[in-house]
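dude i think i finally got it to work??
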Amino acid sequence: MMSRAYMVGGHADPLGARDRVTAWFKQTYPGKVDLSGGARAVGQAFAFPESRRELDETLARRAAGQLLQDHGRHGDTLLAHITEQEAMLLHLATDGGSINPMTGLLEFWEDRDDNDTLGGTSGQSAGASVSDTGDVAGNLHSGDDQAGDDWADGGQDPSAFDGFDTGNPDEDETDWNESWGGGGDNKPSTTSDWEYRGKPHIGPPGIGDPDDHGLPGGDGKRSKDYHNMMAEQQQRDRQRQEDQQQAEERRRHAQEEQKIEKKKGGLKNKLAAAQNNARALQSKIEELNQKIDKQAGVARLRTHNQKMTVAAMQIALMKVWAQRS
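look at this
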């Protein structure tokens, strides 16, 4: 079941999906995704570190994609092209898809791809049996032609299905809770008519699915695993959002602190400049006072000399008058 590319902000982001898969493989299979040997030799041909790093990242993504494909059970896995939420909804709505024990990832595949490869084998696709006939495509959704064999192939006892009242495509499917409880015909909910291919398939998850070989816990664990997976993913998303919010708050706080420190520095510089100006003015005032004092001293000396001159002249005149008389 092809889905749209991994979406970010309402826009397709296939590179983001590829990077996500690369990171997952590096964590799950450490040492498997490396850039040894020829990759590094080719990287040396690039003149700039940025070009070498870009080449290394490209080769790492290719290696991760090849590793993912090698572990797929139907030629290729489409995990990189659907979100976890889409995978869960597809699983719950169609009973298709299963966990690959090699990778622990949920996989879906195209029925039309299986038509050329399944031939006359018995199997299970999207919750319905594949009949052992030449017309595989026409019987992919026949329901229960070989239910017993397929359940056995899937690691399930056919008797485990007894008593399930799992619904009917002719019933009203608007209420999933009621449809999950069954439609009253004691048959698996199948889509024998092409008319219902696009409608939700409501039935017990995992029963008769051959892709569940080796999974511990039997039926029911798969759905629980999906719910647990989604709960953990939501918890991680919430934690990531909280971490991002806290980081944003710290960034804002740091910016405010920088602004305050910058203002403090500006005020200190202005205060120092004002103090320097005050000292310069004080020096000028002192110089002016000294000049004034000096000029005042000269004026007093001149006045004193003038007084002495007048007194001497008066004495001389008195002597002259004295001699005449």
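Confidence is low (pLDDT under 50) at residues 1-7, 35-48, 76-80, 111-220.
im so relieved honestly
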